[in-house]
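Why should sequence recovery work at all? Because a backbone constrains its sequence more than one might expect. Tight turns favour small or flexible residues, buried strands favour hydrophobic ones, and helices have their own preferences. The token representation captures these environments compactly. In the example below, the structure is given first.
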């Protein structure tokens, strides 16, 4: 829901610490041939301006829930800069949801009414095989998000695993030897589709990355107090965090 939560005056939502102001979860990777955006959250416009990212050259989707998808319309500017449709990499079920949710971008009759003001995109279906994009290899990682199968991704020695409460057996080997792990940690209490913090810590310890950052946090996790209680080598991520890709 983002933090502050609408209508909430809890200590985290009322905090003046900028690390307690959390837009919906996304990440951008600066790759050899351009910027790869992972997910298009509702706050995408503000995030792009805040981070001065400029142009997005390709987009990769973890799954099609609203908080990871509903900034899709903000992609329509980038094809003008690129001079071609914007490449989208996602599983077939995510493509289907995008086409249904944003039907005006794909129905020729609706697109003509919009006078061309629609996202011009080109889908590239992916599965679990590694693939090349913007001069780098991306390795998909199957994750469980409740009953839904979604994807995390590894680029080099960095893995991004948001929105999960289950790592299938076949995915563990893809998470070995990491320098940086970015992992879901919603709150202290259990949740049917997300790791709670204690589960996230245990999972991170099992993976054994040199540094772990927790993401997709609710307002129940206040930044300073939570960080102070985390094991060595683990921290809460925050909006604007920048990390080297290795």
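From this structural description, the recovered sequence reads:
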């Amino acid at each position: 829901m983002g933090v502050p939560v609408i209508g909430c005056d809890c200590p985290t939502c009322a905090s003046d610490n900028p690390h307690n102001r959390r837009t919906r979860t996304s990440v951008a990777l600066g790759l050899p041939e351009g910027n790869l955006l992972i997910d298009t959250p509702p706050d995408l416009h503000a995030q792009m301006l805040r981070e001065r990212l400029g142009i997005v050259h390709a987009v990769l989707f973890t799954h099609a829930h609203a908080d990871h998808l509903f900034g899709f319309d903000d992609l329509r500017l980038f094809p003008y800069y690129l001079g071609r449709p914007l490449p989208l990499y996602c599983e077939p079920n995510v493509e289907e949801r995008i086409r249904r949710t944003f039907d005006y971008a794909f129905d020729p009759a609706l697109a003509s009414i919009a006078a061309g003001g629609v996202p011009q995109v080109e889908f590239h279906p992916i599965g679990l095989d590694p693939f090349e994009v913007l001069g780098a290899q991306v390795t998909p990682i199957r994750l469980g998000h409740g009953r839904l199968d979604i994807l995390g991704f590894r680029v080099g020695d960095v893995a991004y695993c948001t929105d999960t409460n289950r790592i299938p057996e076949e995915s563990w080997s893809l998470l070995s030897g990491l320098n940086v792990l970015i992992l879901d940690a919603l709150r202290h209490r259990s949740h049917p589709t997300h790791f709670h913090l204690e589960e996230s810590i245990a999972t991170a310890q099992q993976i054994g990355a040199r540094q772990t950052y927790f993401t997709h946090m609710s307002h129940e996790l206040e930044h300073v107090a939570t960080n102070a209680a985390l094991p060595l080598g683990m921290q809460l991520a925050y909006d604007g965090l920048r990390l080297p890709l290795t």
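A few observations help interpret the result. The first helix runs from residue 11 to 14.
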